[in-house]
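Sample entry (96 residues):
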Amino acid sequence: MTVYYRSRDVLITTGAFVWRAADPARIYRIADFTFVGMVRGTFRHPSWELHATIAGIDTILYASPDGQTFRQVARALVRAMEAATPLPGSSELVEP
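Predicted structure, serialized as tokens:
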């Protein structure tokens, strides 16, 4: 298991995204994400959010008012998702 990001609040590994600061803590399987995007908060409530579609439901994976931390978490998630996605032509087909 590769760890892409670890802090007091967030853990991102090869297969999981864990937001420990949420109440209750949220644990997601990266393989379940069908769409991931970033949302910028309003001027009154400056924050950044990572959203993902999981089983057809828009879910907030992570939110932070700190842009630098948010970008680090977002980049780590991208790296974890890239590692989980097989490269084209690398499928393990067994020929008869």
